[in-house]
Amino acid sequence: MPPRRSTASKAAPKRERTTSSPLSDVPVTKPKPSSKAKGKANGSETKVAVKPKTALADDVKAGDEKLTEEPPKKKAKVAKGKQWPPAELSPDLHPPRNGYPIFELPESSSAKNGALTPTTKENRPMLLGAHVSIAGGPATALLRAGMAGANGLAMFTKSQRQWKSNPFEHEAIERFRDLMKSKEEGGLGYPPESILVHGSYLINLGNPDENKWNTSYDCFKDDIYRCHQLGIKLYNWHPGSTVGACTKEESFALIAKAINRVHKEVPEVVTVIENMANAGSNIVGTAFPELTAIIAQVEDKSRVRVCLDTCHLFAAGYDLRTPEAYAETMKKFDEEVGNGYLGGIHLNDSKADLAGNKDLHENIGLGKIGLTGFRCLMRDPVMSGIPIVLETPAPEKALEVGDLAIWMREIKLLYEIQGINDQDWETKKDEIEERWRKERDSINPPKEKGPKGKAKPAPKGKKKGKKEDSEEEDD
């Protein structure tokens, strides 16, 4: 669509007044004396006070000749001169979607997942994508997902590090809803079941401090209301921490209280609890029984799901590295939580060891989990129909500058290894990993190491705490 023209009108030319003018009933005034007039007070010059001009006075003076004309018609409100869609994200530039031809998943005896009812009967690949930026408005997230050739995506609905943000403008909501529609209807084909919103990092609904809990709840509710405005139905967030001020059981009750309350105050949106990494700490949701304990206290269980983060699982002691280990972990999830509650996946390899309690994300197949674990996931029928989202490391400020290269390549890689049969996989996996590592290093070279294998210190400035480091990996 071409950029809209400015509607600013030119000021009407000023006319000379005459006695035959329609304004001749206005008394003719004599020219104003000079601001300096000579007087004889005490034989010295005196200054005559002159009122300063004001914007209001100037406006009236400039427009008084139009008082008898008809008032101008009110012009339609237009955008602030920015092109839509942005030229660099135009759908004309989008590559074909990945995942075709569609891999035929094997038959499964496991219970089905908690996917939303699909909006189409068309057979689709796994809903694999990445967490993309909303810079320029929420609809740009859909455009960026299209640029990456993705079939699913994650996004924030506002700044993830601020309690409050400006409300959406009506135009932003309409743009997003239009792009969600199918391609036949003029959209990009990203229906609600393919989008997983990530909540603010600030929210902690497990904190027993009443004032802090209320602040978190307001942010939580605002996030979910924004999802409702955009037509998104899956909202994922970190459940929180006891902060050492109460038992975990008390935190479970506080989190369930927030879920029950928001379900009554905002319709439709499904609350998706994310599993966490730091087992044995104050963090809530690191083990499957903790997720079950929260869900047990939710009144409307049709509106609660779980998002499994693969790095968090591995850090908390759930192994994924081999077909046998992967199958055992997913069996535990079904037995202790239930496949019917599985609503989304965050795909991340781990820089840390199994049960290391460290949330350190790594690119797919290049960490301690390895490619085989992710191939198992991509061939698992339980993963069909839910958003599967990459949160892997990328070059600095990749989201801000629109650099999607690392995620575009990982999406292709995951669909590639999905289609390799078991016999060929054993002979090809090392070659594929070596090839991918070289590609990754060319896109996002590993940070240089200092003495004793430690990363070089960051530039002088604000020091980061452990929590901020972990959140940056999530981001």
TrEMBL record:
Basic and acidic residues bias: start-end ranges: 56-73, 432-451
A Pfam family matched in the record: AP_endonuc_2
Any one GO molecular function term: DNA binding
Region Disordered: start-end pairs: 1-99, 432-475
Residue ranges, compositional bias (Basic residues): 452-465
Cofactor: Zn(2+)
Domain (Xylose isomerase-like TIM barrel): residue spans on this chain: 148-409
Keywords: DNA damage, DNA repair, Hydrolase, Metal-binding, Zinc
Cross-referenced NCBIfam families: nfo
Record's protein name: Apurinic-apyrimidinic endonuclease 1
Organism this protein belongs to: Kwoniella dendrophila CBS 6074
